[in-house]
Write a structure and sequence with these properties.
The protein is mostly helical and 116 residues long. It has helices spanning 10-23, 27-41, 61-65, 69-79, 85-100, 109-114, and strands spanning 5-6, 59-60. Pfam families: DndE.
Length: 116
């Protein structure tokens, strides 16, 4: 399904790191939150609009996804049944990028928690 090593776009990665500085939430945890917020919002990945995954933070999928690995992969498989592993990673990255937009402006963990 998803490859063992995954990364995001540089822009998304920078937003996750900034969110960590402000709230203390690590990039892998905030990427999980962002992914599910994106899925809940109805965002759909389109291969034509895929961005280059040029971020330097390359982690294994267990670290990126944690306990949500199975659910994340099932959601991606259900939403995008015809994508190969690399394209599925691009879809995951696009969902994280979409979802981080609603999280990136929070200044504190308390402020972020109030938004849920």
């Amino acid at each position: 399904m998803l490859p063992n090593r995954m990364n995001l776009s540089k822009t998304t990665e920078d937003q996750l790191k900034l969110l960590k500085q402000r709230t203390g939430i690590s990039p892998n945890v905030s990427s999980r939150i962002a992914f599910f917020r994106s899925v809940e919002s109805g965002f759909r990945y389109a291969a034509e609009s895929a961005k280059k995954l040029d971020g330097s933070l390359v982690l294994d999928k267990v670290t990126w996804l944690g306990d949500t690995q199975l659910v994340t992969e099932l959601i991606l498989k259900q939403a995008y049944p015809n994508l190969d592993d690399k394209e599925t990673m691009a879809a995951w990255a696009a969902h994280v990028e979409d979802g981080i937009a609603s999280l990136r402006n929070h200044r504190t963990l308390v402020e972020l928690a109030k938004n849920f």
